[in-house]
Design goal:
Layout lengths: L3 H14 L7 E4 L9 H8 L4 E7 L2 E6 L4 E5 L5 E5 L9 E7 L2 E6 L5 E5 L1 H7 L14 H8 L6 H5 L10 H10 L13 H20 L40 E5 L2 E5 L8
Antiparallel strand pairs: 1-6, 2-3, 3-4, 4-8, 5-7, 6-7, 9-10
Helix pairs in contact: 1-7, 4-7, 6-7
Length: 271
């Protein structure tokens, strides 16, 4: 599932490619991917311009010049591609937004969605999300205060979108590795020093992942050489049986709360 770095990568690149260009055509191939009758959705979006793209957690918000928002969540398996009919991937698309000769293809929205909301409806829909780790308002002290109130496994807390928005399976494991703590470490047993280390680890991992385009498998455009660059830079996620890059341990795979976890049993600790 795309997480904060993947969605931020999309936000940054699309902001350079589609802003202020009129949406010339809208195609709905799967009605369940939208929240309006197709005719209403098409009428309200066609001819509009996207004037700003915002990320909130794992969501993208396309601000339309009408004041309304297109709210995207890719969920599991969702992808974006901007290009032409000739170079588009051979994948089924659920929604298509055309900008003249180029089309933004929303791929794999079997579980994801692209909803049209007013600004107020958008705020209400996202109101239960936790704060943003990379927001200017977030700092180490606020992070410690936020997490010191929690109980349970570190991984379960990191991926809880009501606690902090944008972290999923991959980056929770990468953050735990950077902080030299096991994903199973109990939050209530961690010191303020441990929580400060987690905060700095999370920011380090996210800066690195965003810089390298996240781990998505498909480039956003035919010319895109950035997207997916972090896939080969993951240090523990999906590396079961491989040697640890920090010590002579071997990466193990386990499960916490139904989620797979990857960690080094030698250099990551419960406390």
């Amino acid at each position: 599932m795309p997480e904060l770095p993947e969605m931020d990568n999309y936000r940054i690149q699309l902001s350079q490619l589609i802003l202020d260009r009129p949406i010339t055509k809208v195609v709905i191939n799967r009605e369940k991917s939208i929240n309006k009758e197709p005719e209403v959705f098409i009428q309200e979006v066609t001819g509009r311009r996207i004037i700003f793209i915002e990320r909130r957690g794992k969501h993208l918000l396309f601000h339309l010049d009408s004041g309304r928002r297109l709210l995207l969540h890719l969920m599991l398996g969702g992808l974006l591609y901007l290009g032409t009919e000739e170079d588009r991937p051979n994948r089924s698309t659920q929604v298509e937004l055309s900008f003249g000769e180029q089309t933004l293809y929303f791929i794999g929205l079997r579980l994801g969605y692209l909803h049209l909301y007013s600004a107020k409806e958008t705020d209400e829909f996202l109101s239960d999300l936790g704060p943003e780790l990379m927001d200017r308002k977030m700092n180490q002290d606020k992070f410690i205060q936020l997490f010191s109130k929690r109980r349970g496994a570190l991984k379960s807390t990191l991926v809880n979108q009501h606690v902090i928005a944008g972290i999923g399976n991959c980056y929770a494991d990468e953050i735990a590795f950077e902080a030299q703590l096991r994903p199973s470490a109990k939050i209530q047993n961690l010191s303020e020093e441990d929580l400060a280390r987690i905060y700095e680890a999370a920011r380090t991992v996210f800066h690195h992942a965003i810089e390298h385009g996240g781990y998505m498998e498909l480039p956003l455009t035919q010319e895109d050489k950035l997207t997916g660059g972090f896939n080969d830079l993951c240090r523990v996620y999906d590396r079961e049986g491989e040697g640890c890059i920090r010590c002579d341990g071997v990466i193990e795979k386990s499960e916490i709360g139904g989620r797979k976890v990857f960690y080094c049993p030698k250099c990551q600790h419960d406390k």
